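Re: weekly structure request thread

Next one in the queue (484 aa):
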Amino acid sequence: MVVCVGDPPRAVPCGTSTWETGVSPSSAPTPLEGSDVPSTSTHFPWALHQTRLDNGLRVVVCPDATVPLAAVNLWYDVGSRHEAEGKHGFAHLFEHLMFEGSAHVDKGGHFAAIEGCGGDNINASTNPDRTNYYQTVPSGQLALALWLEADRMGSLALTQETLDNQREVVKNERRERYDNVPYGTWMEEMVALAYPAGHPYATSTIGSMAELDGARLSDFVDFHATYYAPDNAVLTVVGDVDPDEVVALARRYFGGIAARGAFPQPDPAPLPRRFGTGRHLRLYRDVPTPRLFLAHRSPRFGSADAPAVNVLTAIVGRGRGSRLYRELVTAKNLAQAAGSYLSAWGFMHFDSVVMGSCAPSEGVEPDDLLAAYVAVCDDVVRDGVTEEEVERVRAMLAGDWLRELATAGSRADAIGRFATLHGDADAIRAHLDDLLAVTADDVQRVAADVLHADNRIVLSFLPEADAADVADAADGITEPEAAA
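Done, posted below.
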């Protein structure tokens, strides 16, 4: 089916003589509440112009005339959490298929058109909560970028040949990033421990190769028809652009694509507040040295406690000034400097996790390192953190955020994230303020839950050669004593 998305810009030839705009010239987009209001935040000094088209597409424009560029970012509210049983990996594979041509753009034509007009930073990414597509073009080529995105939203060209080809590309990606890399499957193993079977977050985004092999072309046609719609997307444009012109172009190219109206959403049962204690999966694999991975259940990204969790994880596990580094690496030489960390994952829709990792120094037993890691966590729960530690991390996180906003492309991505996952792009204005407002008391309060003794699961990768030195050594899991 070919969906009318408006006349193409001159840079790309029209593939048919029957294209229409699909909307009347008088149809007008609907401004969202708070649109066109200049920023009053010292940490986000740009204005945001938010508009919703008649078909539900949200358009967010952030004018910035400092560079003659336009960053175009299109977020779809679909990720691996939406995959049905037996179809794991669909969202990620579909990301690949979106570059394989549309009704009026040949395979590879999206890259060729953007690069041909002087654009760059063309790519896409998928995670459990969303899929996004992005590129940066000279501001005078904005129409081309929007037309390309609209064409593949409305009229993606899905064929058996492209499906078979990209399925093999994903298999190769899995081999390179997961199967043939030491510890490469740790994330898959950990989410399977952290979430019950069937939970939307219980599988990795790369998915199951067996399930992808069994997928039919019609399954992917249905996936596109179900989730790739204007009322399930946010279009963000940052750069040297006029907001009214951006909205007019969006209306011209996207306006003829019909809204879908309803999007199936997962609804898992609530999880226990904590993991319990004592759950430990030991895997003997072809790895050079042992490595521990740990998970703690935590509030979802976007919750009221999320800023305090971010500060907590940075104090405990980020950089040479962190508790883990100072205690395990510098003071006791129990852990290697590389790869010792603690960080909060940004799962948005259901309970998230804090993930940690550390590798024992030569001659140190993994269980001794684990005991030392637990002792660091227990100290934070019992005694809290200092104001000096909080100040250090505030400065680090502020630097991270300001660097993220420094370029048009990364700013467009951040705006799209808040618009999609929070429901309002203006929520971005409070992000750094919320982090800077975190106190030492806030950190100890969330630590009491997140780092509690009965909220921990452990995954150990152990060298296969070590199995010969351990009686009855084999992959195995110790189950938790209890879960609250």
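The chain has 15 helices and 13 strands. The chain has a mean pLDDT of 89.
Next request, please.
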